[in-house]
Amino acid sequence: MEILFQQILNGLVVGSIYALIALGYTMVYGILNLINFAHGDVLMVGALTAYAVVTGLHAVAPGIPGPLLLVAGLIAAIPVCIIVNVTIERVAYRPLRNAPRLAPLITAIGVSIILQTLAMIIFGRNYKVFPPLLPNTGIDIGGALITPTQIMILIVAALMMIGLVLLVEKTKLGRAMRATAENPRIASLMGVDSNRVIVATFAIGAALAAVAGVMIAANYSIAHFYMGFIPGLKAFTAAVLGGIGNIYGAMVGGLILGIVEALGAGYIGDVTHGFLGSDYQDIFAFIVLIIVLTLRPSGIMGERVADRA
Residue 130: which region, alpha, beta or left (left: phi > 0; alpha: psi -120 to 50)? Predict the structure, then answer.
């Protein structure tokens, strides 16, 4: 039972990260019917930005406490990722809104390659060691160990998901987003500025990706130019699993995928936790994707977005 509880705990940590990334996919799809395959690389930009800020501040002032460095890294990563994602929307996606669906898909893949190449040029090919900013001592909870960094991930992810739900359900911007997702033409006739809503959606998704990127780097002490690709694909799988276009589905899908992956890796593979551990871990996300697309293409919670006229 202790091993089971440990793996479920590990799965919740990883699944929380998947859920944050998946929310970016699902919000953009809900409004634009577009899969932003560059979203995982926005995560990478956030992690490397935080790495640069944290190492720079530590070099200048070695006495700064680790939690403050982590906060500084987040404060720097979020606006950088927002600028990058909004620029991608304005330059790469907006001109293709009325184009065949294949065109923005190919463009998204191209943007992903461009971001990876720029990051490789700026930061180099080698893995960057993200400094440990929180204590590494495991805390025993019912026979399972959890680190302060993992506790931070669970708390921050939960707060951000609750904040997003309140934003979508209770604010004027949220109502505009839901109206645009339901029918953009009628929303425009009712005075909703669709361009503003789309930019806000990309900005919110970028902020979530930035936080996820910093949490991955802090938890696994690694940042590199290719780090967003696999988590991005798995988060897309989580969005499809939950029902792409549905923010609640993205959250549920991320948590389920994280738990399935952790249990599969723990009992079938070499027992480790995280994105980089087991020889078998990466296959479970894609097995789940194949099963879902075969048996229930609409996902667990279906899709709330109406078909475009």
Answer: beta
CA distance 218 to 14: 13
Euclidean distance between CA atoms 273 and 2, whole angstroms: 15
CB 96 within 8 A of CB 107: yes
Are 16 and 255 contacting, i.e. CB atoms less than 8 angstroms apart?
yes
Least confident of 101-110, 163-172, 274-283: 274-283
For the entire predicted model, the pTM comes to 0.89
Contacts of 192 (CB under 8 A, 6+ apart): 176, 179, 180
Q: Mind giving me the DSSP string for 272-287?
A: --SSSS-SSHHHHHHH
Q: Where are the alpha helices (DSSP H) in 171-280?
A: 172-182, 184-189, 194-220, 229-242, 247-268
CA 47 – CA 44 distance, rounded (Å) = 5
Distance of alpha carbon 27 from alpha carbon 21, whole angstroms: 10
Question: What CA–CA distance (Å, rounded) separates 157 from 161?
Answer: 6
Q: Is 232 left (phi over 0), alpha (psi -120 to 50) or beta?
A: alpha
Structure confidence at residue 265 (pLDDT): 74
